[in-house]
Amino acid sequence: MIILDTSIWIEHLKNNRLYFPTIRKLMENREILAVECVFGELLQGVKNKSEKEIILNFWTYLPKESYENIIIQAGEYSAKNKLLDHGVGLIDAIILMHSIKSYSKIWTLDTKFLRVIPEELKYINS
Q1: Residues 75-110 pLDDT 10s
Q2: Taking a C-beta distance cutoff of 8 angstroms, is the pair 16, 76 a contact?
Q3: Residue 95 vs residues 16, 58, 75, 89, 90: alpha-carbon distances, Å
Q4: CB neighbours (10 Å) of residue 123?
Q5: CA torsion 46→49→55→60, rounded to 10°?
Q6: pTM beyond 0.90, yes or no
Q7: Is 73 within the bounds of a domain?
């Protein structure tokens, strides 16, 4: 499974040809793991009802995992690994914790986030 960071979702929603075909294929194969905080960020930036419906449809369709205390665990992981010192906030720590728990890779364009993701958890689009 692959977790798309908000930065990748934005490129997909803009129909960026560098990302759209790969993401569409991953979605068709149900290989994308939806993470609630990412969709919360996407919804935070919607400009109209149509955008909101598209995002909520993706949320409904995609596989999800639910973990009790994931935000607490993400906070502890962040403190232990000094993620704030690297410019990485709680949302990214939550995404990283989802990745660790679900054995999923993370696809992001965020260079600060990329620096703290363990190599084995990074998704590289080839």
Answers
A1: 999 999 999 999 999 999 999 999 999 999 999 999
A2: no
A3: 23, 17, 11, 10, 9
A4: 20
A5: 150
A6: yes
A7: yes
* Residue 98, domain CATH: 3.40.50.1010
Q: Which residues are CB-contacts of 83 (< 8 A; sequence separation ≥ 6)?
A: 77, 89, 92, 93, 116
Q: Which residues contact 97 (CB under 8 A, 6 or more apart)?
A: 67, 70, 73, 74, 77
Mean pLDDT taken over the chain? 96
Contact status, residue 63 vs residue 4, Cβ threshold 8 Å: no
Q: How far is residue 74's CA from residue 77's CA, in Å, rounded to a whole number?
A: 5
Residue 126 placed within a domain: no
Domain that holds residue 77: 2-121
Predicted pLDDT at 125 = 82
| pLDDT classification of 123: cutoffs 50, 70, 90 | very high
Residue 56 lies in a domain: yes
Instruction: Name the DSSP class of 62.
Output: S
Distance CA 37, CA 28 (A): 22
* Tens-digit pLDDT profile for residues 53-74: 999 999 999 999 999 999 999 9
